Amino acid sequence: MRKFLLILIIPVIASCSTLKSTSAVEVSEVLTADLARADGSWAGVATISQRSDGVFMSLSAEAPAAGTFGMHLHAVGKCQGPEFTSAGPHWNPDMKQHGRDNPMGAHGGDLPNVDAAGDRKITLEYQLPNMKLSGPAGLLDADGGALIIHEKADDYKTDPSGNSGKRIICGVFKSGNKS
Ligand code: ZN
């Protein structure tokens, strides 16, 4: 499944980058994560890529219901259900507090809320500001990182997790996931 999706996703990323910029954008690293619900069932896929113009995330998942959902990159690449506490806190290489609206924020792993309509589909295309995947402060350290989707919207300010509630969907990013 992962290899099949990667074949589909890489050309999309490559074609987007050529549209956005006249100069060549190099893609040095692409990782995909299968996303799982608390019961272990498949909920979608996320891709993270290191490009010469930044770190980009794209995501396609199925929410449990229509609504708004917080999501974050977490510090540990381990998705042990049903609570997913194994994924640790938000990825925080700069030792900040949570949330873009927090004067002491934000975490490197703080992502925007996503909306699901009646079809329950969640999608996101997002550039993480000033972040790197590799190196000492990168997401892909020895234990990797995880993408978590929460049951509620993130208020963008309450430390440490924006009152976004339970962790309902989880996916692992590790260098070993490279296909
Ligand atoms: Zn955070």
Overall description:
The chain has 179 residues and is mainly β. It has one domain (25-178): Immunoglobulin-like (Sandwich), CATH 2.60.40. The chain contains one helix and nine strands. It has one helix at residues 2-20; strands spanning 27-37, 42-51, 54-62, 67-69, 71-74, 114-116, 121-128, 145-150, 167-173. It has a seven-stranded antiparallel sheet with strand order 5-8-9-1-2-3-7. The chain is globular and about 40 Å long. The N and C termini lie close together (11 Å). 36% of the residues are buried. The mean pLDDT is 88. Zinc ion is lined by residues 72, 90, 98, 107, 110.
What molecules are bound to this protein? zinc ion
Rg measurement, Å: 15 Å
Q: Determine the structural class based on helices, strands and strand pairing.
A: mainly beta
Largest sheet: 7 strands, antiparallel
Helix content: 10-25%
- Widest sheet, order of strands: 5-8-9-1-2-3-7
Percent strand: 25-35%
Q: What's the rounded overall pLDDT mean?
A: 88
Number of domains: 1
Low-confidence stretches: none
CATH superfamily: Superoxide dismutase, copper/zinc binding domain
Total DSSP E strands? 9
From the spread of the alpha carbons, the general shape counts as: globular
Q: Tell me the span between the first and last alpha carbons.
A: 11 Å
The SSE order reads: HEEEEEEEEE
The CATH topology: Immunoglobulin-like
Regarding CATH, which class? Answer: Mainly Beta
| Count of alpha and pi helical runs | 1
